[in-house]
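Dock arginine; give full complex structure.
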Amino acid sequence: MTKKLWGGRFTKEQDPLFWKFQSSIDYDKELARYDVEASIAHAKMLGKCRIIPKKHAQAIVGGLSQILKNIEKGTFVVDPKAEDIHTAVYLALVKKKPKSADYLHTARSRNDQVVVDLLLYCKDKLSVITDQIKALQYSLAAFAEKNIDVIIPGLTHTQHAVPVLLAHQVLAYLNMLQRDIERLAQVKERCDIMPLGSCALAGTSLTIDRAYVAKLLGFSKVNENSIDAVSDRDFVIEILSAISIMFMHFSRFAEDMIIYSTPEFNIVDIGEAFCTGSSIMPQKKNPDSLELIRASCSQAYANLVSAMVMMKGLPLSYNRDMQLDKKPLFDSINLTETVLAILKGLVESMKVNKEKIQQRLADDESIFALDMAEYLVSRGVAFSEAHNVVGKVVVHATKNNVRISNIELDELKGFAKEFDSDVFNLLDAKRSVMSKRSIGSTNPLLVRQQLKKWHKKK
Ligand code: ARG
C-alpha cells in the first residue's frame, strides 16, 4: 500500500475503483516542478523561522533539489499509486531523506499547496503563450509588409463591399491578438499573489513568514484572506476565458483563410506543409490545419464552460470538486501552444495570388459604388439621394450586362446631373484606397503608419 498524507484516522482501505476515480496523478504530474519549487521555498522558510530544525530543513531542500533536477532531465518517475502530485513528491522525498521528509508538511495543506502550484504554472505558461502570440504577430506583420501593395475586395456579409488593402485586414488580426495579449497580462497580474500559508482554510498558529516565501517564489504579494485563497479558481476561469476569446479570433482567421484559399476567391495559397490530400480525389489540397483550428475553438469553449459549471454554487472553502479545474486548464494551455505554433508556420507559408485578385477587382465594378456615392456627396448631393442614384446605376449595369465604365456619360447624367467625366476615374482599386481619409481607414499611407507603429511595439 502506498503511503498517504492522511492515513491516521482510517482503518480500512479505499474501494479500488473509487481510489482510481479520485486520483489525479495522471494529469496533475504536469505540476511536478512547481510543487517542488514551492516546497523548497516552504522548507527554507520553516527552517529560517525555526519551526522545524535547521538540519532537517537543509536536508529537505537538498532532497527536493535533486528531485527538481530529475524533473528537468525528465528522469523523475511518479509513483502511479500516489494519489496526486503532492503525495508523489513527498514519497520521492521520503526515499531520499527518510529522516527529514516528515517535517516538510508543516503549516500547509494540499489546499493551499495546489493553488500555489497552479499559480506558478499559470504565470509560466502565460509568459510562454504571450511570447508565442508576439511571434505570430511578427509573422503576420512580415506577411502584411511583403504584400503592402495588394488590394482585395473587402467583405461585409461575405459579399463584395469596398476595396481594402490586404495589409489593412492583416492589421485587424494583429489588433485582435494585441487585445489577447493584454487580457492575458491582466490575468497574470491577478496570478501574482501567493497563497501558501493559508493552510486548509484558516491559516496557522505557527509563526510562519509568508512574505519570505512569496519573495523566494517571485510573487509580489501575499493574499489577505486565507479562505478566499484556497477557494479561488477565478484565475483559471479568466485564463480559459481569455483563451476562448483568442480561439474565437483564431477561428475567424482560419475561416477567412479557408475562404480565401478556395478557387472561387483565390486570394491566398496555403503552403503544402499545412494541407492534406484526399484519398479518392487526386487533385485535392485541403486546408485541414485551418479547419481543425476553426473546430478546436469549440474545445477551448468547452473547457471554459466545464470550469465555470464545476465552480458554480460550491460552498466555501475548498471542495474536492476543484480538482477538476486542471484537465480543462492544461488542455486549453496545451492546445493554445500547439495552435499558435502551427499558425505561425502557416502564415509564413502563405502566398498571395496577386493577378487573380486584380482580375476579380476589375470584374466587379459595383465594388466602387460607395466611392461613386461619396463623389456625388462632394458635389453637394445628400448622401441618401446619392445612395439611391448609385443603386439605380448598379442595377442598370447588371440588368443590361454592361460595365459601369462602359455607360455613356450622358446616360449617367440621366441618373444625376452631378456626374462628370472624372467619375470614371473612380473605378480603380488603387485610387479607391488612396481616396480614404479617416483615421484607421484603408489608405495605404495610414496602413503603413499603423504597421510602423506596430513595429515600434516589438
Ligand atoms: N488533488 C487535489 C486538487 O487538485 C489537491 C488538493 C487535495 N486536498 C484535499 N483536501 N483533498 O484539488
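Observed: The domain at 364-452 is CATH 1.10.40.30 (Ribonucleotide Reductase Protein R1; domain 1).
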